[in-house]
Automatic annotation (TrEMBL):
This protein's UniProt keywords: Coiled coil, Signal
Protein name listed in UniProt: Efflux RND transporter periplasmic adaptor subunit
Lineage: Bacteria, Pseudomonadati, Pseudomonadota, Alphaproteobacteria, Hyphomicrobiales
Domain Multidrug resistance protein MdtA-like barrel-sandwich hybrid span(s) in chain numbering: 67-206
GO MF annotations, alphabetized: efflux transmembrane transporter activity
Similarity annotation: Belongs to the membrane fusion protein (MFP) (TC 8.A.1) family.
Keyword Signal carried by entry: yes
Limits of the Multidrug resistance protein MdtA-like alpha-helical hairpin domain: 107-175
Length: 402
């Protein structure tokens, strides 16, 4: 009897245990199916249409404001080099001194010739006056005319002697070679004791003025035509009809702190490159920019109304069109494509396909696909398009209404 009772009891116990396990598993599965993953937070910028600067980035190269190749204008032996190579000099500072003994002798000789010429003038004047009184009473007209010619020749000799003295004094002064303007000296190609000749082909040194400094820029003629067409159509405005300002990025990527201005625009297009030249002028008090340096210039060519999309928040498709991701009214991600875009600093400037209040995703858009639900978090960006401030929505805040 005990065995018959034990077997049905064990069967009932196993059945109850299996039923309990099935109930527990069904409860866990139900709990997992009922829980939903919260939308991912994304940083967004609220779009607002405004008039924005229209910029273009141009390659450029620095050039000295003034350059002088220093050459001797008289021949002789270099007696003194009065400057330190690579240093700054003022206008009128002595650079080179050439031996002047022979030039001093020439000045003395010219002074003596002048004195001799001046000594003959009084006698010629007296002789002319005497013949003038005696004309018709003992002196002929021919003698009077000859006396007049003699005086004129004496006066001409004085003028010639004065000119020779002036030339000799100029040559003496030219033995001192002075700086024609304020600038920075180069290395000297000649040393003390070297013989130089007047107006020789080889320069003694080069003097450059670096403050201010020129930046030579090049722009394609096609861009120039497009800009003019946009101005005539009224899409782009220019204050005073000129470029507003010019900013530089140096070779190491740093921003030059000073703003330049347009100095000259070439009114001809290169036949070989199809570009035209623009010359900008920058203050260079610390000589940070040196001639020959390559730079990139951001030129503000006008203003145009539209919306700014940071370049860090956009990509380009296979056709080269700008694409960006937005959050719609249902907090769903969508991608928009813009066929036309302009450059405005570190942003793309678009005028179509966006409305005021639209939410542009500026952070985390690389990992979110279209149709994904998200939680927008309003943010601000700096000039480089980096997120610098976020304003998270308070806990329990209602979702945006469509």
């Amino acid at each position: 009897m005990s065995r018959r009772f034990l077997l049905p009891s064990l069967l009932l116990l196993v059945t109850a245990t299996l039923a309990g396990c099935n109930d527990s598993g069904d409860q866990k599965a139900g709990a997992g199916a009922g829980a939903e993953r919260p939308p991912s937070p994304v940083s967004v910028v609220i779009m607002k249409k405004a008039e924005q600067p229209l910029t273009t980035v141009l390659p450029g190269r620095a050039d000295a404001f003034q350059t002088a190749a220093i050459r001797p204008r008289v021949s002789g032996v270099i007696k003194e080099i009065a400057f330190r190579e690579g240093s700054e000099v003022k206008q009128g500072d002595l650079l080179y001194k050439i031996e002047d003994d022979t030039y001093r002798a020439e000045v003395a000789q010219a002074k003596a010739s002048l004195a001799k010429a001046e000594a003959s003038v009084p006698s010629a004047e007296a002789n002319l006056a005497r013949y003038e009184r005696l004309v018709g009473s003992g002196a002929t007209q021919i003698e009077f005319e000859n006396a007049k010619v003699t005086l004129l020749q004496a006066q001409a000799d004085v003028a010639q002697a004065k000119a020779a003295l002036n030339a000799a004094e100029i040559n003496l002064d030219l033995t001192e070679i002075e700086a024609p303007f304020e600038g920075v000296t180069s290395a000297s190609a000649f040393s003390i004791g070297n013989v130089v000749t007047a107006n020789q082909a080889e320069t003694l040194m080069t003097l450059r003025r670096l403050d201010p400094i020129y930046i030579e820029l090049t722009e394609s003629s096609a861009n120039l035509l497009r800009l003019r067409e946009a101005i005539e159509a009224g899409r782009v405005s220019q204050e005073g009809g000129t470029i507003a300002d010019i900013r530089l990025t140096l070779e190491d990527g740093t921003q030059y702190p000073l703003v330049g201005k347009l100095d000259m625009s070439e009114m001809a297009v290169s036949e070989t490159t199809g570009t035209f030249s623009i010359r900008a002028l920058f203050d260079n008090p610390d000589n940070l920019i040196l001639p020959g340096m390559y730079v990139r210039a951001t030129v503000v060519v006008g203003k145009e109304g539209g919306y700014l999309i940071p370049q860090r928040a956009a990509t380009r498709n296979a056709r080269g069109e700008v694409t960006a991701k937005f959050v719609n009214a249902q907090n769903i991600v969508e991608t928009r494509t813009f066929a036309h875009s302009q450059v405005s600093g570190n942003n793309w400037l678009v005028s179509e396909g966006i409305n005021d209040g639209d939410k542009l995703i500026v952070d985390g858009f690389q990992w979110i696909g279209d149709g994904a639900p998200v939680q927008p978090v309003e943010a601000t960006v700096d000039e480089q398009g980096l997120v610098i401030e976020k304003s998270p929505a308070p806990a329990g805040a209602p979702a945006a209404k469509p």
